[in-house]
């Protein structure tokens, strides 16, 4: 039975307030009003437009199951009313939401249903442009990048013909990312900048605005364009902050904030952001994204010398289906497992062809290959990184390439070639306000001038680097710098340091064996070596030495 009189007016008021709340981005209020109107026993339920609003509100609140239920109801209502194009819109969103949480088969089914509904419609309707988004990602998944770029162009063309800002922004994002992966990074970033125009002008609906923000920042991070990434991360943070109930996009925002904090060596704050991001993603069921956040956390822990915790973070990333590389290879190198690290970076480089993703591996590969006494391979990797950095023009890549070129030259004891590259790395990382990377580059300056016979200048550079590492808590880097100065505090291997740290916090041999996946006998042997190297008689004395010499 239908509502009447004052009761009907109350429902109308609820719907009007829900629409106003949605427009002002108060997703919780919109949801409350819509569900109140929908659940009233005197009504026939929400109409299709309000079901779409409810679906978007629940999506933005992070309730994906409720979003799917609203979309399914809206789809059925459109079909029952013979409103095919409206039904296609609901089917598009059902495909997108299912794909977003890893349910690809269900998502593909809804996309196929939408395409079937459009079979008898004229070719030039805007809904076809939305379905092309799914075609684009299918092309990417099968590695057909030429078809993907062509599909991106078609999405942009449809959007411009129909004056649809959401579709235009999505098409520009698709096109820009693929241009970058094809090696046309400046052009790809310019295309992404164009997509951001719609966001900045307030033309996009919330889900598309969040999508474009995150795609832009992710692209900047991939090519170490830190200035651009920092600016857009600040903008994304402001956008998220205007929506207190927002759940999607906040995880990615936390990841990007963590990445910028890591660049500036604000490590405790970065760790907190990555942990927050992982929890947000895991709650939404976005496992790969949660894995990325945990991998980033592992990278910070590795820099801090907390190798056991770093390995645990990388293992957690793997449990989410994310391969934490090249961080895990660098951890293996730091812990003395150099041959395994070399095998890992060789595999990663063999598997990675596009220049964007390859650029993220090459710097780590150079370090590992130098440690593995593979100078020819290291020089080849450094040369590739220099070429990519020159083509892309991003400051972070140029800094990384200069550092790697200096490292390779030092391995060949070519100080004349190493010194200008190391100094360029110091300058470039300094411009990016990256103190840890500046200190690492100063170590190379010190090594180069020592080869040239200037021991006093070498000691000054190495001491400055050592001081920075100590201030930042970068234990492993500090110890390496101290060895170069000639005042190493331990001489312990990475595994011995792991054992010592666990001893210092009160773990028994059996507990240490379980945590490090070692036998009791191996732990005992490590302890014997630790006592001998530190010249201490007991576990208590070893723990005291570790605390006094900042080895924890």
Automatic annotation (TrEMBL):
Gene Ontology biological process terms, A to Z: regulation of DNA-templated transcription
PROSITE patterns assigned: HTH_LUXR_1 (PS00622), HTH_LUXR_2 (PS50043)
SUPFAM superfamilies associated with the record: C-terminal effector domain of the bipartite response regulators (SSF46894), TPR-like (SSF48452)
Recorded superkingdom: Bacteria
Name the UniProt record assigns to this protein: LuxR family transcriptional regulator
Keywords: DNA-binding, Transcription, Transcription regulation
Taxonomic source organism: Kribbella pratensis
InterPro entries per UniProt: Sig_transdc_resp-reg_C-effctor (IPR016032), TPR-like_helical_dom_sf (IPR011990), Tscrpt_reg_LuxR_C (IPR000792), WH-like_DNA-bd_sf (IPR036388)
GO MF: DNA binding
Domain called HTH luxR-type: residue spans: 485-550
